[in-house]
Specification:
By secondary structure, the protein is α+β, with helices and mostly antiparallel strands. It contains four helices and six strands.
């Protein structure tokens, strides 16, 4: 792994960094880690944008699993399952080319929360 990197974006559960020397992105989200070149990152972003949340939640409404949105992989016996909030957070993490669009970021909420 390169030691010369740039932090692109960070959320509560993930971070996206760019490895300057090898020209790859490192995406860590929850317990997942991806190493992607620019084309792979854009393809992943496009795939996530096209996910029909309502379809998958209805398709697996009787599933025993809380997470109902499948993300296929090339390994036929491995599927990543996420929920709608994780999908939104992943899209937010990968949407680093545009403005904040009025949404709060992880940094906006970083601090003590009073339950009063």
């Amino acid at each position: 792994m390169c030691c010369n990197f740039t932090k692109v974006k960070e959320t509560k559960n993930g971070i996206l960094i760019y490895m300057n020397h090898c020209k790859k992105f490192q995406l860590s989200f929850n317990n997942l880690h991806f190493s992607l070149d620019k084309i792979e990152l854009e393809t992943f972003k496009d795939f996530l944008r096209k996910v029909d949340i309502n379809y998958w939640e209805n398709e697996y409404e009787n599933s025993i699993y809380r997470k109902k949105i499948p993300i296929p992989t090339l390994q036929k016996n491995f599927i990543i399952l996420i929920d709608r909030y994780e999908l939104f957070e992943l899209l937010s993490l990968l949407d680093f080319d545009s403005e904040n669009k009025g949404f709060l970021t992880f940094k906006d909420l970083d601090g003590k929360i009073s339950l009063n």
